[in-house]
Fold each of these.
Amino acid sequence: MRYETARQHLTQVLGDLRTWEVLNPAGGAVSVRLPDGNILMSATRLAFDRWNVSLRDFIVLAPDGAIVEQTGGLGASGTPMHLDLYRMLPRAGAIVHTHAPYSLAFASLGLPVPTVTNRADMFGEIPCLHADDSTVKAGFLDNPVPLDMPEGMVQRPDVAAVTLLEYRPQLEKVIAPRAAEMERHGLAFTLYRHGAFTVGRQMEETADLMLRLEESARTALLQTQLTGGVIYPNRLYQAEHMASVDAAIPAQVSS
């Protein structure tokens, strides 16, 4: 079995993410770019197994998605997005995808996650990419088109169509132009009604980015309990805005 040290590392990170309650049986995946350029990725169905991970529960892919070594299942349906992100972002070293609850609340409405904590300021924008999964899948099943599906992923063309036909162009337009930001910090985005992605230079950073993202989403939702439904990103806390902020906060909270 190749890349045993990297497998041990990813197993530990997955355990941490489960402990921090950002992984759940709804799905998700992690991957890391290895020194030789290959991609080590968690195998499909791990979520259904409650993220009880062994060293064999990974697949090694070439940058084009060909199988280098398969000791467990295939890559999940999001495999093309991982491969696209590594191709578009040369500094990307690791990717974490989860269905964490607070960022998913924003994604369920197609809303970007606001950066309301200082730990999230590093992200800049946290966009939500949009695709209507059910409509795309139904349309593909009615009128299939050829898809360039990676060898090392679950062979479900209708699911892959959402990524390849809808999300890939959005990654090229929204995420790829931000490649230079990876010299300073990682990136984050969500998928409509699906979940969150963070992209960092190495795995510890990328896992921490997911925690920062979820923390900001959670805090934004808690803000609404204090303000009567209004979210105040950091940029609003300036002198010219303080009067409107104070007016929005109930007297018993601001006193």
Amino acid sequence: MLLRHSRAISTQSPASLLLSPTPRGARLARLPATEQLRFWGLPLSPADQIVAELAGNAATHGRVPGRNFRLTLYVAGGTLRIEVTDTRDDRGPELQHPTGGAESGRGLLLVDALADRWGSASGPRPRKIVRAEVRLREPKPENACSGGTGGLFQEPSGRKKPHQAPPLPPTARAHSRE
């Protein structure tokens, strides 16, 4: 289960993966995302937690039997964009403040706290895209990947930069910590 990206054409291609809209699919989203971030030389935190929360929401609230959700990662400028696309455009994400004893309902609170900006937009019908952005900082030596990835993500020679993608249009519902 690897994130799919085009290495041959350009550095503009995002990494993307289809996952089943089940609790297992949501849990599995984090592993290939962290491997892709390592491959690009980007810090894992807080992106790994954001991926987990958005994938969990897609499997819980965006589930339509027989239709997968898509996880997409890419870098635009100095920003990592994390997108999760599901097939329930009738149910947008709502930031809620659960009661003290509630066992769920805190996912978007975490995304709101960890992401520099997040929001949602309608995709091609019947899709909904929930996007979170994390500004990239200079990597620190302790965040560097040590050890190989088993040849899963082999970079063409001469290219060292993370994948770049053009800026996105503003989302329909956006939230920013600025």
Amino acid sequence: MRTLIVKITTLLAVPLTAATLVSAGPAAAASASKATASQTSTSSAARAASAPVRILVNYPFRVRRGHVVSYKVRLVNNLRTKTDEIFLATKFPKNVSKVRIYVPKGSHYHERCTREQLRALCVLPGLKKGHSYTFWAKAWVRGSTSGYLYGYFGGAVVDTSLDTNPKELLSEFGSSIHWVKTKSSIVR
């Protein structure tokens, strides 16, 4: 007997850390605290965030193996001024065959993204006061997997140019990034 699987989305919010790029390595300019919120209480998550940019992730509670899973990722500016450039990273474990980040049609984000098998990295221009970026991260789930699908979303506000390679930024800021961890059950 087939059962209908309802797509329940949950909202996770965590602020991105602010960092500056120096020759010796990154220096965290602000500490970030993780805040988890449901879709109905988004305003309480906005008050709890203390970093310049907050990341919000909508993800499905259950996913089907062999299908494509979509995650809605939103970056929101918490400051009263424009932020520096934003580095966004998305990574998945080995039960995913590929990961891509897509921007809405007609948007002029001027992002620079890399596409790898299990992760996607982007560098974006700074956000103006009250503005946000919206992305869709898509993961292709392997047909032979079972258990849970974990996704990791994170980033940093960096003082660098847009021409910087996102792979270099991941190696620089990898240890200081606060990751948003999503967990979805994999069903047939």
Amino acid sequence: MVAIRRRRRSEDGEESVEEPPPAPDATEPEPLPESPSESEQEPDDEPGQPFSLGNLTPVLLLRAVHPRQALVTALALAVAAALAGRPSRELLLVFGTVLVGQSCLGWFNDLIDRGRDARHQAAGKPVADGRLDPGTVWFVLAIGVFVVVPLSIGNGVYAGSAYLISLAVAVLGSWIWVRKRFFSWVPWAASFGLFPAFLSYGGWGGQDNGSPPEISVTVLAAALGIGVHFLRALWGLVPDQADGWTYLPLRLGRRLGASRLLVVSGVYTLGTLVGLAFAATSVGLAQ
């Protein structure tokens, strides 16, 4: 661009030439405003955890009930009721009652063990690893208790009382001071030993249509509870020993080894199941 000069006459008559400041070159871009420093920039939101169905609260609550044990126990008692000739509607009532009751036991167990499970980094424990709030579990557990009581009484007063007592005994067996000693098997035997009474006295709509259970069936059911206790304890022998527990499965595991104890416990439990099935089909559940 050609600069335009302007002449200016001074007071003494001399002329001078005044050149204007050069215009900015159109080809050179104007400097951009400086970006704020990293410390002045607002921090971006931290990326959230990726969405996972496994982290949804209903799914975590389902995992905390020990679903396999709850489902197997409910199915086993429903099948036993079917073999005893109970009608279909009563089978569904038995299944629902036991399923809710076992779910309550699972939630209670994970709640009282959450500190210990976290210390040993137990897998599959959403309460212990912080993904599931204990307050939520206590709330759902309270709802489960309010549901299982009328369901139990719906089987009959005697039958419902037998099942509710079995739940209370199982809760007692979940306390650490009980289950870490030699007689940890007693609550399991007592709880399972009440199952035949729950079935033999069972009816519909709170009616007691049954009779007392056969003594042989009751004894075998209690023996089955001991076998289930041994099988359940096998997966926690290492942390239990680290905590100084002295219950019977751990004592036998020290002598036999975990592999042999698994075989012995499996054979014992299977034999008890066979004997229970034979007794139930030959003499029946009720006297």
